[in-house]
Amino acid sequence: MRPTAFDVPLYLAAVAAGMVLIALARWAAVRGARWESLVALRVGSVLFTEVVGAFLVGYGAGALVALQLGPSPGGPPRPPVGVGRFRGTGLFAPFDPANLPLTLGMVGSLLATLLRVDLREILSPARTKDPLARYVGWEARVIAPIAAGGYGEVALRDADGNVRAVAATADVDIADGANVAVVGTRDLNLLVAPT
């Protein structure tokens, strides 16, 4: 269905609602795991609410642009949009004003997904033998006291932003609630030091 000038408030509302959903998803992702599960709807490293918001922004913006590209009332018909193979009919004409809202909505949601996915981890051919080595240099907080040479637990955010409890060891005594830095690994545990 081709967008009409009477639908402009609806398309502006779609753009505004999409922006609100994107902001809400990012706010929830910063607030913590409870808000992520209720509002941001995290699927792996992708925030589903953000993807829906990006689709709405793209769809609304595409509809507003399609209004400008569509036939003008009372004037001569405009030439078909597209060049060569990109000129077509129906769903095979992504640059046709009738399909532009859906096309830009799909592009927006695809971009929102690609911005959240860590492609380096997916595409890297050689994965490290020590999976804990990726946390070296990260900040953490002690949630179970660590005696010198003993073991305890630290809480840190993983690559997806989720808070995880991880076993850790240290060369000095570290009290509960202390901020630490991951300085290395020892056996299958993180080696931490006070900051």
Secondary-structure blueprint:
Layout (H helix, E strand, L loop, with lengths): L7 H24 L1 H8 L1 E2 L2 E2 H22 L30 H17 L2 H5 L15 E6 L6 E7 L5 E7 L9 E8 L2 E6 L1
Parallel strand pairs: 5-7
Antiparallel strand pairs: 1-2, 3-4, 3-6, 4-5, 6-7
Tally of alpha and pi helices: 5
Please tell me what the overall shape is.
elongated
Largest sheet: 5 strands, mixed, barrel
> What is the averaged pLDDT score?
79
Helix content: 25-40%
What is the number of strand segments?
7
Distance between the termini: 61 Å
- Poorly predicted regions are none
Which structural category do the helix and sheet elements fall into? Answer: alpha+beta
Strand content: 15-25%
Give the tally of structural domains. Answer: 2
- Across the major sheet, the strand order is 3-4-5-7-6
User: What's the alpha carbon Rg, rounded to whole Å?
Assistant: 25 Å
Order of H and E elements: HHEEHHHEEEEE
Could you characterize what this model shows?
- The protein has helices spanning about 10-30, 35-40, 50-70, 100-115, 120-125, and strands spanning about 40-45, 45, 140-145, 150-155, 165-170, 180-185, 190-195.
- It has about 200 residues and is an alpha+beta fold.
- The chain folds into two domains: about 5-115, no CATH class; about 130-195, OB fold (Dihydrolipoamide Acetyltransferase, E2P) (Beta Barrel), CATH 2.40.50.
- The strands form two sheets. The protein has a five-stranded mixed beta barrel with strand order 3-4-5-7-6.
- Strand 1 and strand 2 (about 45) form a beta hairpin.
- It is elongated and about 75 Å long.
- The model has no long low-confidence stretch (mean pLDDT about 80).
